[in-house]
UniProtKB/TrEMBL annotation:
InterPro entries: DUF273 (IPR004988), Nucleotide-diphossugar_trans (IPR029044)
PANTHER family: DUF268 DOMAIN-CONTAINING PROTEIN-RELATED (PTHR31562:SF4), PROTEIN CBG18972 (PTHR31562)
Transmembrane segments: 7-26
Official protein name in the record: Glyco_tranf_GTA_type domain containing protein
Taxonomy, superkingdom: Eukaryota
Keywords from the UniProt entry: Membrane, Transmembrane, Transmembrane helix
UniProt entry tagged with the keyword Transmembrane helix: yes
UniProt keyword Transmembrane helix, yes or no: yes
Pfam families: DUF273
Organism: Parastrongyloides trichosuri
Length: 369
């Protein structure tokens, strides 16, 4: 009998230890989602159900020609729909987009475009006019929302803003409503602020998902926003709001992204592997195989920085649709480097942004409002 009791005791200890260890691995808390290993995107969609959309203020802009040509070629090869919309090309669908600042109006225009083509396009990749494809071997399908995700944003690298100039969304009423809410934030923005939609987006997020959960911090952040004096005040407001968002995130801090509203809104962190774009100047206009889209691709920047391509990039529909389409991307050999070199360059900006964020966050607690 004593032997059975001893064996039972050992078994009980083993089972208890196993349960505790398993629960720790799952890392579940009442307000956090469990850590789930991502195995790649399993979203089922045809290429012609994906739209790449730019929203420009004018009909044409030579400043962005090379960036746009890369997107035309990329879309032609894979069968995506590439669309450039503006007030002239989309006049009948702008009646509700009454905003002074085009940077806010564009999100309303995009929402209207998405609604107009909701039967045709299941997913939309929105890009700033100065964004282009540097590595066409990546497919948009790698970056699409999965499961309950509706809309995906990413953090800017050199500061603590969420990027307003590019996001990917499921063409649903939920996503379109977020874009309209974003556009409407123009009416809440201080009249003297010049931060435009990039700065406002932090307030948009907090207003959408939790401005009543941390009321004292929220009032202080908005007080700083309304007292705008310069760029530094904008960044203090951004850090103030990002601190609230960190508390509202539904996944542990160590994850490479943040989830909000039951996982329907996702924000990718600075070094997360599924980011689709970054600023070109972070790495001195060099790139590696992990890069897909680069930002700040303007004619004046191309003129004063090392060229990506030799001699240049020209859209050729026949070539782009052929099996030799990669010949369109004839790189300057010095522009393509190892990903270790790129990560080193980018990480310096990440560290600098974090240190500045801590300073700005500290300032947000003491500034008079």
């Amino acid at each position: 009998m004593k032997e059975y009791s001893r064996l039972f005791f050992i078994l009980a200890v083993f089972v208890s230890t196993y349960i505790i260890f398993t629960l720790q691995l799952i890392h579940v808390s009442p307000t956090k989602k469990p850590i789930i290993k991502e195995e790649g995107n399993k979203t089922k969609v045809k290429p012609n159900e994906i739209a790449i959309v730019m929203v420009n203020e004018l009909d044409g802009n030579d400043r962005y020609k090379q960036a746009m040509d890369t997107l035309k070629c990329y879309s032609a090869h894979y069968g995506y729909s590439f669309n450039i919309i503006n007030l002239n090309s989309f006049p009948k669908d702008t009646i509700n987009c009454v905003y002074k600042d085009f940077m806010f109006r564009r999100h309303c225009l995009l929402s209207n475009f998405a609604q107009k083509y909701e039967k045709r396009f299941k997913y939309i990749l929105f890009l700033d006019g100065d964004m282009g494809v540097v590595n066409p071997l990546h497919r948009i399908e790698e970056y699409l929302p999965e499961g309950e995700e509706e809309i995906i944003f990413y953090d800017r690298t050199f500061n603590y803003e969420i990027m307003a100039g590019s996001y990917i969304f499921k063409n649903s009423l939920y996503s379109r409503n977020i874009l309209n809410f974003f556009a409407d934030y123009e009416y809440k923005m201080p009249t003297i602020s010049n931060g435009r939609d990039n700065v406002a987006l932090q307030g948009v997020f907090v207003d959408l998902i939790g401005n009543t959960k941390y009321p004292d911090e929220y009032r202080r952040c908005m007080g700083i926003y309304k007292k705008y004096k310069n760029y530094e005040y904008n960044m203090i407001f951004v850090s103030c709001m990002r601190n609230i968002l960190e508390k509202l995130s539904e996944v542990p801090k160590e994850m490479g992204y943040q989830y909000f509203d039951g996982g329907r809104i996702k924000v990718l962190k600075k070094m997360y592997k599924k980011r689709w774009a970054r600023d070109s100047w972070l790495s001195h206009w060099r790139f590696c195989k992990d890069d897909f889209v680069l930002h700040a691709w303007k004619a004046e920047e191309l003129a004063k920085n090392p060229a990506f391509f030799i001699p240049t990039f020209e859209f050729n529909e026949n070539l782009c649709k052929s099996s030799k389409f990669l010949d369109a991307w004839t790189y300057n050999k010095s522009a393509k480097v190892s990903c270790e070199e790129i990560k080193k360059d980018v990480n310096e900006w990440v560290v600098g942004a974090y240190n500045t964020h801590l300073k700005d966050l500290n300032s947000s607690r003491y500034l008079p409002i």
